[in-house]
Design a protein that fits this description.
mainly beta; 5-stranded antiparallel β-sheet
């Protein structure tokens, strides 16, 4: 049984419409960004060694992919990684990097656990809430995660996994410039 406070929270999150995140956040390449990946297991961030740009490594049943976040372009692919390291289920929840991240290990958040950053240095936060289990909603906040007041002022409901695959992970890159939301079927990306 839910307490009155829990009922109020549930109502608040259920009534908030999905909206685009506020400026300076934008969707990849200026549009809502959903990059399909069947059988997605998890995602992790890396930094391009030459440009410093955020990269997203995707681990799926079809191998590894490496995305340039700003464009959504797949810049590296390994369809047949070594079976001993192809899933991020070891103690470090990491996989070997590919492409420009080769020679490093990339921590992966998703089906096997782990997590991405939930805060940025300038106070942005995300919360994953489930007022309608098993569906998840991602809340972006500019008020330190209090999510107080009406939606659209200091907090925004930026994603619902309805119509997507099973929720895997959500969070910021270590730089705080990218927000990734991963489901079993796709990755949604926002950047600033």
């Amino acid at each position: 049984m839910l307490t009155e406070y829990q009922r109020q929270l549930r109502t608040k999150y259920l009534s908030a419409p999905v909206v685009e995140p506020p400026a300076p956040w934008r969707a990849m390449a200026g549009r809502w960004s959903c990059v399909p990946f069947g059988g997605l297991l998890g995602v992790g961030f890396g930094e391009h060694p030459e440009t410093g740009e955020d990269l997203l490594m995707v681990v799926s049943g079809d191998g590894f992919g490496l995305l340039e976040v700003a464009t959504g372009t797949k810049i590296a692919r390994d369809r047949d990684p070594d079976s001993e390291v192809s899933t991020p289920d070891g103690p470090d929840l990491a996989c070997p990097g590919i492409g420009v991240l080769a020679g490093s290990r990339v921590r992966i958040a998703g089906l096997f656990g782990g997590g991405l950053h939930t805060t940025t240095e300038d106070g942005r936060t995300i919360d994953v809430v489930s007022p309608e289990w098993p569906h998840h909603r991602v809340i972006l906040s500019a008020d330190g995660g209090r999510n107080s007041g009406e939606p659209g002022n200091t907090w925004w409901h930026v994603f619902s996994d309805e119509g997507h695959g099973e929720f895997r992970a959500a969070g910021f890159s270590p730089t705080g410039r990218t927000l990734a939301i991963a489901t079993a079927s796709d990755v949604t990306l926002f950047m600033r």
